[in-house]
Predict the structure.
Amino acid sequence: MIMNNCQFNNSPSTEIKRIAEEATGQFTWLYIKDTGVEWGYLAQERMLRVIEESGAVMVYSDRYVVKNGMREQAPVIDYQAGSLRDDFDFGAVVLIRTDALKEAASMMNADYRYAGFYDLRLKLSNIPLRRFMSPPLSIPFVRINEYLYTELEKDLRQSGQKQFDYVDPRNRERQIEMEQACTEHLKEIGAYMEPRFEEVDFNQGDFEYEASVIIPVKNRVQTIRDAVKSALAQQTDFKFNVIVVDNHSTDGTTELLQQLAEDERMVHLVPERDDLGIGGCWNLGINHPECGRFAVQLDSDDLYSGTDTLSKMVRAFYEQQCAMVVGTYRMTDFELNTLPPGIIDHREWTPENGRNNALRINGLGAPRAFFTPVIRGIGFPNTSYGEDYAVGLAVSRRYQIGRVYDVVYLCRRWSGNSDAALNAFQLNANNLYKDRIRTWELKARLFVNG
């Protein structure tokens, strides 16, 4: 059995095509990280056996990583149709059937500088399994959930720092290429959606308040006062209130909110249920009889950047005729000093292609605001991660999502943030769930497209 061993750090399309052209063996190892790999005992033989017996187009495996001289487990997750993030973690090495590699490379029409491997694996994912029937959206990739090698981890940043790489303005050229590759893929599988949207009737419903600021909270006594005061300080020419859903706090948050509720504009809700995640708290807030026509997000850690945030968000609904609005925020520390990457404006949310590119990116931006009748009809999943992303995708399937490019929000990062420093298992659970959300959304869009 002849195999090819190929390594590249950056992944330009031309390099991948050259590798495919020169590959002569039955299988090809691709080393996709610039890190050393120490193979486990008979690990390569194990990967070869799995790819042969499963009929897979590509296999990859769990591995160990060495950080600061210590070896630790670094599992990966199963690939699915919704695994469209360009930063999907395959580990340092994948094994591909050479005939599939050549077929996929022959379909790579664009000359990408950054998105070469991303384009390749999207095209590989469309190649049918060799030995089994392939229902729609089946994936011919196999993850071996065994620790087959060790790699040296060079990026020692915590998860809370890494998660914003894709919105760093310095990576804008890279992101444009990734968007192009993803959009082409969606067209190939029939999930691409043209920029045609349903109209929004803002006369739906009978609302006492034009807007409500929704703040789910649990055990944030250090930050909730600032958040609530930021909301109550809004200056508007319309009537608004602040709905705080206090999810059974035990650290003094409840008592503090009871004091703040002396302001008649504030609604302090304590759920009767004890099984609500953040999404469930949002459902409670948007379905409250005093919820306004527009429901605007404010996390309990964060602040509005000025007294005009609420006005700008509401105005965007009417000016852009949309069912959801995404604002622009600035990353800060607890003292409001700017943190890298600074201002995050999510310019990938273009009117022309935002609803498609949303399937590739890992977040929607902040603050998020919703036309209440629409969001009531969709509802949030009762989770504490990805709930906002799920409803954003669902909204974008039918309606335009508007944008506010002024900085209207301050995202405060501190050690108490729930995603500040996740271990590999927690991060994988989050990524797996968002990939499932994307998979379900792909199926929905295929149904819409007929």
User: Anything to note?
Assistant: The two ends are 44 Å apart (CA to CA).
